[in-house]
Amino acid sequence: MTEPTTVVSVSGVTKTFPRGNVTALQDINLDLGAGEFISLIGPSGCGKSTLLRVIGDLVEPTSGSVTINGKSAHQARTDRDYGIVFQDAVLFDWRTVSKNIELPLEMLGWDRPKRRTRVAEMLALVELTGFGDHHPWQLSGGMQQRVSIARALAFEPALLLMDEPFGALDEMTRERLNLELLSIWQQLQSTVVFVTHSISEAVFLSTRVVVMSPRPGRIAGIVDIDLPGPRSVETREDPRFFELVTEVRELLRMRGEHLLPEEEAAVAGEDA
Amino acid sequence: MSASALTLRSTKALREWAPALVVAIAVIGGWQGAIAAFDIQQFLLPKPSNIAAALWDDRGTLWPAGWYTFKEALGGFALGSCLGVLFALIVARFERVGAALMPIAIAGNAVPIIAFAPIFNAWFDPLEPTSKMAIAGVLCFFPVLVNTLRGLQSVRPQQIELMRAYAAGEIAIYRRVRIPTALPYIFTSLKIASVLAMIGAVVGEYFGGSFDALGVLIRSDAQILDFVTAWAGIVVASVLGITLYLAVAIAERIFVRWAPGGRDV
Questions:
Q1: Least CB-CB distance to B158: which of A86, A95, A104?
Q2: What percent of chain B has pLDDT over 70?
Q3: Which residues form a coiled coil (chain B) (predicted)?
Q4: B51 in the same domain as B69
Q5: Using beta carbons and an 8 Å cutoff, which residues of A are at the interface with B?
Q6: Rounded to two decimals, what is the model's pTM?
């Protein structure tokens, strides 16, 4: 299972929050090859968002290390090696849609004509051509999230980190954006780390699904998604799709996703 | 903009302002009528027509005096507001400084600063505009400080995370996130400060000042029982205060044009 080039390498990462002495992550090891689409899935509190932030050098691991393209995570952040999308679009109200997408390009010191050209390309990519002069609050939630994706992709980072980007959207919008994201991913050949709550979303999008279990957060299992690409609406009706969804669900259940709090505590006790 | 669009806009403006205009005319008319009807003494409440006449007759002294006081208010407003914003930036940036100074600043905000007016007149030359600027400045300082600070701190944590993901330093985060977020708060406080500045200057002058100043004029007119002229002076002070407020409101419209609810004065 060695990929030709490793983009992200997580080795022995543990994260303890001093407040409440919570072990958010315990001894996480994970390698991501170039062009992979990896989903991190698990119940709340399993540390999936924390793992994403450790990869992005937004949270310092207590021990262990992360390398991105052979560099330390900190160096990678300083070099702006990745783009990030959050559950909320996190757009700036005082900037128009175009200006929001331009933000990372401004920080990279691109000149104005170059920025303008790229913004036009990005608007076309997320199908928002004509909305460049709108302000974020004039757009629907789904459109705002597309702007946020366009902003993350504007400088063509090789790595895209996504923290439940479609979590706040309705099912129909979510499914449409899933398809859009896949087509963008295929066009740009980037590597994606995608945090989600939704099993079907994880299976539908990913090349691999990493199932995480809570308290302490650790990897419960990794499911290879061998669905044929390019994926489409029909993929969701493929029998293999259901098998994989079941496989992920079993892994989650085994690790106590639906346990009551006291049962969870008991499980955590066994683990410790 | 086409001519028809312009007419449309002015009709809309007229419709917005019409209710306030009607009420204002009714109040002034009622005032004028009530004095005649109830035979109210001139020194208790002069007729609006008499005040208007005094405004016209004494225009040569009232307006220059108003301008003198307005300059004091403006100086204090500029000084106090700038210091308030600057102080807020320092407090927001250095948490320790904030922890040490904010309780004092909040306490200071609750002090009736206007009570210090006679003392300021003693500290500075009461005949110079500096003493009034100082009062106006201190009055403006606290609301601007408190509001600006709240604005700088009301940034969503994810916005900071996003900026850090782009390897932004503190200065970039201030320039691109914190200050734009604080801008509506700053303008709200500047509108409050614009009113306070005029109050500070006029009341400061009640405790002594140059004979060129409006506050001194109002006070001396009241002392010789020339209440009509005193009222005319108050009208001048009000007009100038409203002018300063409107100037800030217009600046707000220009700088905070993006805000979803930024349409009301």
A1: A86
A2: 95
A3: none
A4: yes
A5: 53, 56, 58, 77-80, 82-84, 86, 88, 90, 92-95, 103-104, 107, 135, 137, 161
A6: 0.80
- What are the contacts of B55-59 at 24+ separation with CB within 8 A? B55/B232, B55/B235, B55/B236, B58/B229, B58/B232
Q: Which of A51, A39, A27 is nearest to A252 (CA)?
A: A39
Kind and range of the H or E run holding B36: helix B3-38
Q: Beta strands A22-33 and A71-72: pairing type?
A: unpaired
CA distance A154 to A81: 12
Give the pLDDT band of residue A220 (cuts 50, 70, 90).
confident
Contact (CB, 8 A) for A74 and A240: no
Of the candidates B201, B71, B238, B80, which has an alpha carbon nearest to the alpha carbon of residue B147?
A: B80
Q: Which residues of B touch A103 (CB under 8 A)?
A: 166, 176
Peptide bond preceding A216 in cis form (omega within 30 of 0): yes
Q: Are residues B88 and B59 in the same domain?
A: yes
State the architecture of A6-81+207-271 in CATH terms.
Answer: 3-Layer(aba) Sandwich (3.40)
Chain A closest-CA separation from residue B249 CA (Å) = 18
CA B1 to CA B6: how far, in whole Å? 7
- Contact state of B165 with A88 under an 8 Å Cβ cutoff: no
Here the CATH number for the domain that contains residue B221 is 1.10.3720.10
SS3 content of chain B, % helix, strand, coil (to 5): 80, 0, 20
Give the chain B residue nearest A148 (alpha carbons): B162
ipTM computed for the complex: 0.81
The backbone torsions φ and ψ at residue B23, rounded to the nearest 5 degrees and listed phi first, read -65, -45
